[in-house]
Amino acid sequence: MIAQFINSTLRKVPAWPLYVLGAVPPAWLFYSGVTGGLGVDPVKEMEHQMGLWGLWLIIAGLCVTPLRRWGNINLMKFRRPIGILTFFYIAGHLLIWLVLDVQIPSQILADIIKRPYVTIGMGAFVLMIPLVVTSNNWSVRKLGAAKWQKLHKLTYLAAILGGLHFVWLVKGWQIEPMIYTAVIVGLVALRWIPKRKRVAVAA
Amino acid sequence: AMLLAGRGRAETGDLVPNSYEEITAYNNFYEFGTGKEDPTANAGAMSTEPWSIKVDGIVDKPGDYAFGELIEGLTIEERIYRFRCVEAWSMVVPWNGFELADLLAKVGVQSGAKYVAFETAVLPDVMPGVRRGVLDFPYVEGLRLDEAMHPLTLMATGIYGKPMPNQNGAPIRLVVPWKYGFKSIKSIVRITLTDKEPPTSWNKANAREYGFYSNVNPEVNHPRWSQASERPIGGGIFAKRIPTLMFNGYEEEVASLYEGMDLSKSF
């Protein structure tokens, strides 16, 4: 009943305002950073916040299918904007790291090659590029639904790498990044639960 | 820009300290949580009165000293030091404290002692990081005796003329300005003179990344952060990175301690 109510309500809500809403946090972060509202180390704060938002969004995106399967809640039309926003948040996260944090090109390259957490973070970002490029109806038609779906399974790998990137970059074994990673791995694992075959009940 | 210029000319001793707010709002003190703001938020619950420090090992006058008793008669002076975190950020801090050498002279180091080991308080009731077991607590650190006796090595009891804030390691902490910040152990409750290299917390947690010496060294790569340059805290979002100096700029004073050592092996 709740599911029905949610579905009928959301049916009336368009998906495009998500893009507008999605632009608010980065804009606010940048404004706060420039005006001194992000504490003592605004660069790290911006970088970290954008990374966290990226993780929240990717987790939100991974929830869509399980919610439909087990909760009968249909958020399908929001999945594309969530995915595209994830890409832009991670791109912002990367840009802050490149321009405001590391700054020095030779050091950027050295970091990507030598530091495993940077390497897997970059890997996750690169995996997201074909996903964002094909996040449009034209690409779905061009590739065909089956091929498109197969390609977009890269999301799972990108998400897990994103979680590991967080686990690996902190000093010591910290609980927060491990929770994010566990949630992501759990959500991905749900995809492998076989669908129950509809067995005809013998009369 | 003035601030950066000042820091760039560090060799001349012309250092511009960070603000009190910056120094006391941005800390690594994992007993109180792993976030930079956690120590400021949580450390207020720690009571530092009374505070007792055990001095033991190869010393003339071992015992449990009250904080006041231990520092009695020692000259507190201001030392403006560069502070370089292994995470590749840096600050300049005006510490108040006395030389560790003076304290060691007071308790009487016996021949045979080769190292000084330190231990941080473990107060699970007020330390959420201890309850979570982020590291193997108590936090322990150590110095070779000649490093400990070096005139730059400070036992700090204050910042900007104020008593040491809890989040910065009240009531007393070590400051070794040519080493990465984590060597400068906080809220000390035990000082042990020993003849063996003592275990150190980050080395125990990850020996590949953190050595016993942990001298600031732009040439020795760290698997997690390049140590070639650093971000000075306090310059806003467009602050330029600055090159990291050998021994954090104290090369002239301390390089002789490591003569003949391969610093890429003894990192």
UniProtKB/TrEMBL annotation, chain A:
It comes from Harenicola maris. It is a multi-pass membrane protein. It comes from the Bacteria. Keywords: Cell membrane, Electron transport, Flavoprotein, FMN, Heme, Iron, Membrane, Metal-binding, Transmembrane, Transmembrane helix, Transport. This is Protein-methionine-sulfoxide reductase heme-binding subunit MsrQ. NCBIfam families: PRK05419.1-5. Belongs to the MsrQ family. Pfam families: Ferric_reduct. Binds 1 FMN per subunit. Binds 1 heme b (iron(II)-protoporphyrin IX) group per subunit. GO terms for molecular function: electron transfer activity; FMN binding; heme binding; metal ion binding; oxidoreductase activity, acting on diphenols and related substances as donors. Heterodimer of a catalytic subunit (MsrP) and a heme-binding subunit (MsrQ). Residues 51-162 form the Ferric oxidoreductase domain.
